[in-house]
Amino acid sequence: MRQVAGLFNFKARPGVAVIASLAFVAIVVVLLVFAYAARKWTINSISCDSVRSEQEKQGAVFQVSKGTKRVVVFGDSWVAGQGLDDPSNDGWPAKVGTQLGWGTWIDAVKMTGFINGGFCADQPFKTRVRDVMAVDPEIVVVAGGINDADHSGMDIKRAALALLADLVGVKQVVVVGVPAVPSKSAAQIATIDGALSEAATSAGRPFISTSDWALPYESDGLHLTGSGYTQYAELMKLAIIDLALDQTN
To answer: pTM for the whole thing?
Structure first.
């Protein structure tokens, strides 16, 4: 009986306690990761629905200024004028287009880039070329890349070159670099800017660097304030004029 009783008089060894503690920690970590992934999926799902709804309402590409030359500005939330009360009129593409006498259309999807597919995961720039070409543009301004900050310069350059190859039939294509947004490191900005500059040079297209433009940002450190969009539009207009693009034909 003493032997039998001894079997049930169990006292946990230190090694067993450690294993139990590690197992508990592992379970907690897994649950936290699962909760984070579920929350991120929910946010992306809601945001994707919002993106689809906006596109259905106003079209994938829509006009923001009237003029004699057909121009499409192609990009992300900066092109969309995120944060503005009236982005169609107060966004920088509309301001630049109006001042240069352009008939300007925009194709802008939040959170997208040369690689980044955005909230819906399937809308990187290259997938939207058909919509852009449907306007039969004489000029295309490609402005984006900040949402590709987590990718390597080589991958960004490769994706940019693929996009520019798809736009080979457009008379004028201007590639715009990324500004030095506070939410990204100097190294990330330099990587993106360098990749886009190299891609533009390789494709024989002009490049506008914006990394040294001093601009006011919202608290998110990523998007411009209302006055920031106005400043950006003025600087962009001057940069485009400096390129001496043909304004009349």
So the answer is: 0.81
Two tokens, residue 24: 């508990």
> pLDDT tens digits for the chain (249 residues)?
555 555 455 555 666 666 766 666 666 555 444 444 434 433 344 588 888 888 888 889 999 999 999 999 999 999 999 999 999 999 999 999 999 999 999 999 999 999 999 999 999 999 999 999 999 999 999 999 999 999 999 999 999 999 999 999 999 999 999 999 999 999 999 999 999 999 999 999 999 999 999 999 999 999 999 999 999 999 999 999 999 886 444
**CATH class as words, domain 59-242:** alpha beta
